[in-house]
Design brief:
With about 375 residues, the protein is an alpha/beta fold. It has 15 helices and 13 strands. Helix 5 links the parallel strand 5 and strand 6. The mean pLDDT is about 95. The chain binds uridine-5'-diphosphate. Uridine-5'-diphosphate binds next to helix 1 and helix 11.
């Protein structure tokens, strides 16, 4: 049955990060719904190719590259544009039954636009609300608007729920819906894949995230310096104004003389293939993650995972039963864990088996879509407000 509600999905970015990959799955089949984007970009193109109605603001170009540590002076000209986007949103919202904000910036503007439009508003919060990611004013505004105007706040993990509540968010608003993924199995041997992808045949580990300081790619580079002969692929690009960090990573590689062992592959759309080609997937985030799709992708691919012990990772990895956990920001601990995994991969077979079953049962796409579909229906019918 086709979903009946006309939902206006709202996202601030035109780039495709983890949250936007989830949005692409959530909007699938909702032909009466639309997506409002603040700026043009690959996300709008993919949505349009899939037959979705996409409305792109005339005022948001480049806003995604604006960093929260920019000065007030730099931010000043933005306020007019934000007001214009809010007015556009209020206008479009009236043609829909439910508003669904898929990012923090999208939620703030949707909540304000909705003061006039008065539609039930869902916030899919893909972040950990904490001082590491948001300034004090931003946190206060998010929580005030959520408590006052959101019908539901969807979070992907207990860690994200706890952070929202700790910041002052109402517990009764929160609905934990773990992210769900469907990854097609790749039918090729690791050796074939490496040849096809032009990857070295040496021991190989990888990190698969956009480049950002808190994603901790530098910790993997430092760990590789302690592991002679081991190569690393760094997959991902600076999507949201983190170009300085990307340059810093390249400097670090040069400084540590790792140019022949660390391979920057940029943003890729064949992550499942690349992931299956490595001997271990590293998730080195130095701040708590609200989820971590790459953890589940590696579990589905049958690849050993080494992740930092913070945020949602311990939960997803069942406290070490589905992957190894190391302290955040500790290159030595990471290099020791990698050394252990690479030295005796056969020991990990039962863990990989368990991880793959856990990913399929707990983090399936069908499960996520059912939960979100039900939530939208209830909110649309006024049941959850
Ligand atoms: N990803 C991708 N290409 C890249 C790097 C990452 O498609 O070059 C995907 C990755 O496979 C994962 C998502 O981007 O599905 C990142 O989601 P995650 O939850 O790990 O992090 P987020 O970006 O949401 O913080």
């Amino acid at each position: 049955m086709m979903p009946a509600e006309r939902v206006l999905f709202v996202d601030h970015t035109g780039q495709i990060g983890g949250a936007e990959l989830i949005l692409l799955d959530v909007v699938q089949g909702r032909k009466d719904s639309s997506v409002f984007l603040f700026e043009p970009g690959p996300l709008g193109q993919v949505l349009a190719e899939r037959g979705m109605s996409v409305i792109t603001s005339r005022w948001g170009r480049g806003l995604g590259q604006f960093r929260r540590d920019s000065s007030w002076l730099e931010a000043l000209p933005l306020f007019g544009r934000l007001a214009a986007i809010t007015a556009e949103l209020a206008h479009v919202a009236r043609r829909h039954d439910v508003l669904y904000a898929n990012s923090q910036k999208a939620f703030v503007l949707s909540a304000i636009a909705n003061i006039a439009a008065r539609r039930p508003l869902i916030w899919h919060l893909h972040d950990i609300i904490s001082p590491a990611h948001f300034g004090a004013l931003q946190r206060r505004m998010q929580i005030f608007l959520a408590n006052r105007f959101a019908a539901k706040v969807v979070v992907p993990s207990e860690a994200a729920a706890a952070a929202f509540i700790e910041a002052g968010g109402r517990r009764s608003l929160v609905e934990v819906v773990p992210n769900g993924l469907a990854v097609e199995p790749v039918r090729a041997s690791q050796q074939e894949l490496r040849q096809r992808l032009g990857l070295p045949s040496a021991p190989l580990v990888g990190v698969f995230s956009r480049l950002a300081q808190w994603k901790g790619q530098h910790v993997l580079i430092e760990a590789l310096a302690k592991l002679p002969g081991v190569h690393g692929i760094i997959v991902g690009d600076a999507l949201f104004g983190e170009q300085d960090y990307a340059a810093e990573l390249r400097r670090l590689v040069a400084e540590l003389c790792l140019g022949d062992r660390v391979h920057f592959l940029g943003h890729r759309s064949d992550v499942p293939l690349l992931m299956q080609a490595v001997d271990a997937m590293v998730h080195p985030s130095i701040d708590p993650e609200p989820f971590g799709r790459t953890l589940v992708e590696a579990m589905l691919a049958g690849v050993p995972v080494i992740a930092t012990d913070a945020g949602a990772a311990p939960d997803i990895l069942d406290h070490g039963r589905a992957g190894l956990l190391v302290p955040p920001g500790d290159a030595r601990a990471l290099s020791e864990a990698l050394d252990a995994v690479l030295a005796q991969p056969e020991i990990l077979a039962p863990q990989l088996d368990y991880a793959s079953r856990r990913a399929r049962t707990h983090y399936s796409l069908a499960r996520m879509l059912d939960s979100i579909g039900l939530l939208i229906r209830n909110v649309g019918a006024g049941a959850a407000v």
